[in-house]
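=== RUN LOG ===
request id: a7f3
mode: sequence -> structure
chains: 1
length: 145
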Amino acid sequence: MKLILVRHGEAFEGDLTIKGVKQAISAAENLKATQIDAIYCSNTNRAEQTLDEILRLRDDDIKIAFSSLVRPKMKKESLEKLKKRVELFLDDLKYDHEKETVLVVSHSAVIKMFLYLVKKEVKTVGYGELFEIILPTYAKASAGK
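=== RESULT ===
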């Protein structure tokens, strides 16, 4: 599976700034020729507005889901809880989208955790930045066994 992670554009009080819209448009330009089979998006305004800009340049019919598993890290949420949340999301993705390309529009801490869990990398994640990850797949259990 190919996973494409996009951080939302710069925001102020929950909505994209003019600069944030430009960052989202830039991400959209980088993705417009990419085959995407499914999209997961945080249900925050800034993530949804970033997704809107990505979709504006596309005319394909893509399944979209808004997921609390890719919401921003809460102040009281420990890194261990964030890690478990992202691991759960990754497990679901590997099962549900085994051979597909999945776009996730999310937040800095969540994307950093994805990168750490999958690639053992610690990176700074800029507004509107894209990351591509190839996830290993596993065989689904056969029905009736």
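=== NOTES ===
The first helix runs from residue 18 to 31.
DSSP finds four helices and seven strands in the chain.
=== END ===
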